[in-house]
Amino acid sequence: MNATELTELKQRFPLVAELIALRETRWLNPKSSSLAVGLPYVGLTAEDVKDAHARLARFAPYLEKAFPETAPTHGIIESELIPIPAMQRRLEQEYGQPIAGTLLLKKDSHLPISGSIKARGGIYEVLAHAEKLAIEAGLLSVSDDYSRLLLPEAQRFFSQYSIAVGSTGNLGMSIGIISARLGFRVTVHMSADAREWKKAKLRSHGVEVIEYTEDYGVAVEQGRIAAGRDPSCFFIDDENSRNLFLGYAVAGERLKAQFSDQGRVVDADHPLYVYLPCGVGGGPGGVAFGLKLAFGDHVHCFFAEPTHSPCMLLGVYTGLHDGISVQKLGIDNITAADGLAVGRASGFVGRAMEHLLDGFYTLDDQTLYDMLGWLAQEEHLFLEPSALAGMAGPQRTGALLAPEKICQATHLVWATGGGMVPEAEMAQYLAKGR
Ligand SMILES: *Cc1c(COP(=O)(O)O)cnc(C)c1O
Fold first, then answer.
1. Which 3 state secondary structure label does DSSP give 396?
2. N or C of the chain: less Cβ packing under 10 Å?
3. Which domain covers residue 218, as residue numbers?
4. 43 and 86: one domain?
5. Domain boundary pick from 218, 241, 264
6. Which residues pair with 190 in a beta bridge?
7. Cα angle for residues 255, 265, 39 (degrees, 5° grid)
């Protein structure tokens, strides 16, 4: 982008200057519409999500045996929904601003197998691929007990195939662990942001890890090229995959069941506000899609990004989607929120979801570290920096709530990762909070 183009862009889109200045900012989406209006843009339906639910149910007997940590939920990979009242008081004190309503946390940070939101989409996509291969080869039928995929003959079958993915860390962890367990050969292309312990853990599972000194976009591109040279290789495309998106979307109905079990009401008088950390967009996009299908117009979704990586805000706000990167504006895409260190948003998710999202905001790394420390002190919950991005949501968007409904609102912070961070690494995070 040359200087004239940049000046023009700033004139048409005043918020671009805020993004370039790396200021924490908020943007309410004027295209936000009802579910009826927004749904056709997604190109996927409730039927597709139902199909994903059914596929995960078929795999549950396999997962329960292959990953004993999923036994308590009988092979269903799901996280807890909990209130965090002490954190709510702490946020009110620190920011000198009340949070009307109830503050809840969705603990995807503690999902089994890989300890992040990627245990939804990433694992789902590998399972869908494995199922397709095995059925086509006559090794499996949908009425079988899928735990037969643990048999040596199934493992031998999958070992003829390989899987590749580019990642900032957590997607690679999810895909690497499940692929290796099924018997696939798997290669993870890791961006420079990826934490050392994630790479070490993957290697201990027999995953090939290729490291890059560049960012996520480059790791994905190199992964795509390498996979293209090998006809037996399936490349998991985090920037465009519908299957990843559907794996995340399953969260909507599951959350609705948890609300109902806890006696929590969501309706016109009891709106639900959900704050989702956003990297390339598949995770929060898929979850938001599922939430919209489950709760309709009573749920309001906001995406949160680091000030150094506001790719989705930039893409949706300017309408340029994946046609622009933050680097084009001179923003460096360097952040402690490694799970969100993405410079160019998914073109699919932005276009699919732009009519169903209420807004976007950015936060700087220090804010993430501060909230990480407060949550540890108040609730004894330990998350990675990326996973705190949603925590600023209630106060960032508070003024938007209809005054008569404000006390009955539920604010749900989607905690996206951190459950497997080693203690020494966590101590370093905690030391950075104020
Ligand atoms: C990947 C990730 C996200 C965001 O998901 P995207 O699909 O990249 O938008 C959020 N938090 C954590 C911890 C992640 O690993």
1. helix
2. C
3. 118-241
4. yes
5. 241
6. 167, 211
7. 55
Query: pLDDT tens across 64-92, in order?
Result: 999 999 999 999 999 999 999 999 999 99
Rounded to the nearest angstrom, the distance between the alpha carbon of 41 and the centre of ligand 1 is: 23
Cα–Cα distance, 169 to 167 (Å, whole number): 5
Instruction: Report the nearest atom of ligand 1 relative to the CA of 121.
Output: 7
Protein residues whose CB sits closer than 6 Å to any atom of ligand 1: 116-118, 170, 277-284, 339-340, 384, 386-387, 416-417
Do 323 and 208 have their domain in common?
no
Strand order in the sheet with 272-277: 26-28, 359-363, 299-306, 272-277, 410-415, 102-107, 81-83
Same domain, 84 and 143: no
Both 283 and 407 in one domain: the answer is yes
Q: Are residues 304 and 414 in the same domain?
A: yes
- The CATH number assigned to the domain holding 180 equals 3.40.50.1100
Mean pLDDT over 285-304 rounds to 98
Contacts of 386 (CB under 8 A, 6+ apart): 277, 279, 337, 338, 339, 340, 368, 416, 417
**216 and 152 together in one domain:** yes
Q: CA dihedral in degrees (369, 372, 377, 383; nearest 10)?
A: -140
Ligand 1 centroid vs 220 CA: distance in angstroms?
15
Q: Of 354, 312, 18, 364, give the one whose Cα is nearest residue 9.
A: 18
Q: Please identify, among 192, 217, 241, the residue that sits at the C-terminal boundary of a domain.
A: 241
Tokens 């040279």 correspond to what residue? 229
Order the strands of the 185-190 sheet from edge to edge.
208-211, 185-190, 162-167, 233-236
Q: Are 150 and 65 in contact (CB under 8 A)?
A: yes
| Residues 98 and 204 both lie in one domain | no
Q: Which two tokens stand for residue 38?
A: 């927004």
User: What is the per-residue pLDDT across 190-213, written as a single tens digit (0 to 9) for each?
Assistant: 998 889 999 999 999 999 999 999
Give the pLDDT score at 362: 98
Atom index in ligand 1 nearest the CA of residue 238 equals 7
Tell me the whole-structure pTM to 2 decimals: 0.97
**Total count of domains within the chain:** 2
pLDDT tens-digit profile of 220-239? 999 999 899 999 999 999 98
State whether 424 and 382 are in the same domain: yes
Q: Look at residue 193 in the predicted model and tell me its pLDDT.
A: 84
